[in-house]
Amino acid sequence: MTIKRTEPATDADERSMLEGFLDYHRQTLEWKCEGLDDAQLRTASVPPSELSLMGLVRHMADVERSWFRRVLADEDVAPLYYSDEDRDGEFHLTDTDTWEDAYTTWQAEIAAARTSAARFALDDASQGRNGFTEEPLTLRWIYTHMIEEYARHNGHADLLRERVDGATGE
Q1: Rounded to an integer, what is the distance from CA 53 to the centroid of its chain?
Q2: Rounded distance, CA 38 to CA 70, Å?
Q3: Helix extents (H) in 34-98
Q4: Dihedral sign computed on CA atoms, order 132, 87, 71, 61
Q5: Which CATH superfamily is domain 14-165 in?
Q6: Which residues contact 37 (CB under 8 A, 6 or more apart)?
Q7: Residue 125 β-bridge partners
Q8: Is the peptide bond before 48 cis (omega within 30 degrees of 0)?
Q9: pTM over cut 0.85
Q10: Domain ranges of the chain
């Protein structure tokens, strides 16, 4: 399967543009993982770092879940991979963790995020609270933050992919 990234429209309304950029970055992370096996996807960048492509995908599943379900929609859902005891659990891969499970979970969280976001206008306040400031946030803020989060981690993914098999790209 070849991942097709859809360029965000240059003439869209604000919401469509924000959603377009977020989807573009989601597709970029998927593209960076394309064609690799489980061993390659769990390859850490440079010891002692445990950062891997599979770990990034697991991290983004938790990030999608946190901002769109817990904060925006105020759903009572627990983190998927991390805990108070292991704040970086998404990066601590075991032999039983697979790309198929990580990818399926990530895609399910993206679908849930879209469902949650569809119920809100850009300026609507979240039903839940930001865990850092306890303030409600607008959907616009969450979209902007998610674009930033993916963009930063896609930079990591570029370096990880190059480390794994030499593949480079935008």
Answers
A1: 11
A2: 30
A3: 38-41, 53-64
A4: positive
A5: dinb family like domain (1.20.120.450)
A6: 99
A7: 138
A8: yes
A9: yes
A10: 14-165
